[in-house]
Amino acid sequence: VYCYLKGRQESMASISMLNPKAEFAKAQNAFRINTTAARGLFEVLRTNLGPKGTMKMLVSGAGDIKITKDGNVLLHEMQIQHPTASLIARVATAQDDITGDGTTSVVVLISELLKQAELLTSEGLHPRLVTEGFDLAREKCLAVLDQCKIELSADMPERDTLIAVAGTSLRTKLHADLANCLIEPVVDAVLSIRQPNEDLDLHRIEIMEMRHKTDMDTVLIKGLVMDHGGRHPDMPKRVTNAYILTCNVSLEYEKTEINSGFFYKTAEERDKLVKAEREFIDKRVQAIIDLKRKVCDEAGGQGDAKPGFVVMNQKGIDPISLDALAREGILALRRAKRRNMERLALACGGYAVNSFTDMNMDCLGFAGLVYEYVLGEDKFTFVEECKNPLSVTLLIKGPNKHTVTQIKDALKDGLRSVKNTVDDGCVVPGAGAFEVVAHRALKKYEETIKGRARLGVQAFADAMLIVPKVLATNSGHDPQETIVKLLEEAAQVEKRQGTAKQMVGIDLATGEVMEPAEAGILDNYNVKKQMVGSAAIIATNLLLVDEIMRAGLSSLKG
Fold it and tell me: Of 7, 311, 473, 483, which residue has the fewest beta carbons closer than 10 angstroms?
């Protein structure tokens, strides 16, 4: 009995708590797995960083091509299987969702922080001490960032500053000629929709695609472009001095919402019912026609050229109603999108009506020109020459789908960069200037820290230089030589107590040192703040992982 019990106890002790089919990695192995994943993403994305970065071609299973250097698009579209790499990708895309930029920088910085930490842990330093150093360095880095920012005027930043910020963002996504072509439309679009004492709402800017001409023909329309046209051949294709009625009223037969039936005794009763139903719709159409005659005749009687009339309806218009409107020379669009109805009121004035009772001139908007443009089988309606448009359209043109998609992604980032500048009220010099200043500040800060946590601060300081190093490498310059020049020049600026505008960065064309603020290379403050914060936190979390388990519940059959 004794032998049996002893043997049973020994066998119980050897049983693992894990599912026997589980895979797990411990201690140094777990850390190595995380570091390898981060390095893998770094190797893919590092060549994309900066205006001289290279493109990536993504081919879907169906053979669709996407050519991009936008880190956010790459991380969304790539099929990432490794759990750690997937975690880093999600952090980077969250950065893009919050600030609209900085995706590639975050991946590069996380990878470099883990690489620097690996050098320390391989020599026996406990990861917890490294992470304490990282936390101290992050706080110091954010304090340095506040010293590096260039304050802008409180009510509205200068247009030149906004153009510089938009240019810095767009040139990292598109080739220089196309980026230069898009800068002014992006800035003007944001300035058009800005209202004093109101938050900027970028949804007021419609981004419309037209596969037509070349990518350099992308323009800003100070009005609205809709992707449908009139539904009657006799309606006018071009209307000048147009009064615009936006409505959400059905102008067609509609079935009742409940199941109902009608019983007639004679054919005359049926005709009477059909006539009554038609009369109900005809009265609505007549209300539009009466308003048009009243408005247009009044304006025409004042000596102006007789204005036109346009109806934009969110619901349907049946052929008989279309015919009646066409006879009056009214351009009518049916089944307009709800977001276009809201933008139309912002662009042209007036408001959308849900009933035709008590209609008056106040509900009408006005546009100098409304015309229809036919491209192949597609129709577009342009509403232009609005008096004070609070909603505008960026019309993207391009010869093929992937060019249009590439411009669309870049425009969204460009718009966000301008919005961030207005919201922050400040900018930060780009071209690696902040990273160099942060490196020098952390090196000095390291000397004030007691204990082994200073090694973590030192690792963070060295990791900050990865951004200027990668920028130099992608431009074909020697990274070590460039960093030495930068640090020497930064020391000189510090010695003469230079301002944030005199901070130095890399001139990617020559590899020499320059002043980014002078050259118009400006980054968003909140992008840098988010980048430093999220990279440090994720690197810290990954450092403290000492066991990775792939242990799902075993199936009932197993």
Answer: 7
